[in-house]
Specification:
With 300 residues, the chain is of the alpha/beta class. It is built from twelve helices and ten strands. Helix 1 packs across helix 6 and helix 10 crosses helix 11.
């Protein structure tokens, strides 16, 4: 499915970033954040196949789940509007009744939003019965699925065989699974977990992989969550400005700031061998900053 509102030509590889060591390591960043303001970064890739499948099955409504600041929710709303199909979002937490910028945007793209309590949000099958019907195509929370991962394989269109390492942020693990599936045998995928203490995350990734893909080279690191999902202590915010001043890389506070900070720190600590060539995946998400950062002045 091609459409001009997504401009893949805007994607670019920004060279020689984030390496503040004396190690001989080339670090580049794949700027997927430039694809589209709302359907930015990996969300475009993750939505490609599920939406195509829905249309194929004659289902005219995409319905999915997410939190009040979810990039996945607003991206789904925008993507569906563009392709002329309906969208429904089941949103965790009644406090979200006080609309975030993200929810306002989703609503402005025509998404029908249902706010449910944290308790009922856990009962996905019940919610599907309550809010859906047979014309709905359901997408998992955060887009977690093999179909989503299939789309993320396309990210390798910008990564050639000279790269030894690919590093990405990990939420549901869908993008990481796609990257693992597409990687060559000598390429290692390192994921930076943005959730606190979620050691089981690697199993979520594995569940999306075939047996052969599971044997490839990959790992998830748990040292860069900065206190947990969407937590953004002042040092992180200050680092985001520094990263922008030094490298002209705008990052979001949930995923890519923690990713880029992690890469810089890992290089310093000698995690990557001399001679490594690293591609960092800028998976987008910048739209969330305006909802979440109120009292701090970002430079971008
Ligand atoms: C959704 C998102 C991720 C996480 O992707 P998963 O496939 O859920 O792991 C990473 N970065 C950004 C900017 C995102 O919006």
């Amino acid at each position: 499915m091609q459409n001009s509102f997504i401009d893949k030509h805007k994607v670019f590889v920004q060279k020689n970033v984030l390496n503040e060591s004396n190690f001989n390591i080339e670090t580049n960043i794949l700027r997927l954040d430039t694809i589209n303001n709302v359907v930015s970064g990996n969300k475009f890739f993750k939505l490609l196949h599920p939406v195509a499948a829905a249309i194929n099955e004659g289902k005219m409504t995409i319905a999915t789940f997410g939190g009040a600041y979810s990039n996945h929710i607003v991206a789904t709303a925008c993507y569906c509007k563009e392709f002329g199909i309906n969208s429904v979002g089941i949103i965790r937490g009644e406090e979200a009744l006080h609309l975030s910028d993200t929810m306002n945007d989703a609503a402005s793209f025509g998404m029908k939003l249902h706010y449910v309590s944290r308790e009922s949000f856990k009962e996905k099958e019940q919610l599907k019965l309550q809010y859906g019907n047979e014309t709905f195509y359901w997408v998992n929370e955060g887009g977690y699925s093999r179909l989503g991962a299939e789309g993320a394989k396309d990210i390798f269109d910008w990564i050639d065989e000279t790269y030894t390492d690919i590093v990405c942020a990990v939420g549901t693990g869908t993008m990481m699974a796609g990257l693992i599936a597409a990687a060559l045998p000598h390429q290692k995928i390192t994921g930076i977990c943005v959730l606190k203490g979620y050691e089981e995350q690697i199993n979520d990734v594995k569940k999306l992989l075939t047996n052969t893909e599971q044997l490839k080279s990959y790992t998830i690191l748990h040292d860069y969550h900065f206190g947990g999902y969407a937590k953004h202590p002042l040092p992180l915010l200050e680092w985001m400005n520094e990263c922008y001043s030094k490298y002209e890389i705008p990052t979001d506070l949930i995923y890519t700031s923690k990713l880029c900070f992690g890469v810089q720190d890992l290089i310093k600590k000698g995690y990557f061998p001399e001679g490594s060539k690293i591609m960092v995946i800028h998976s987008g998400g910048l739209q969330g900053n305006s909802s979440l950062i109120k009292k701090f002045e970002l430079l971008y």
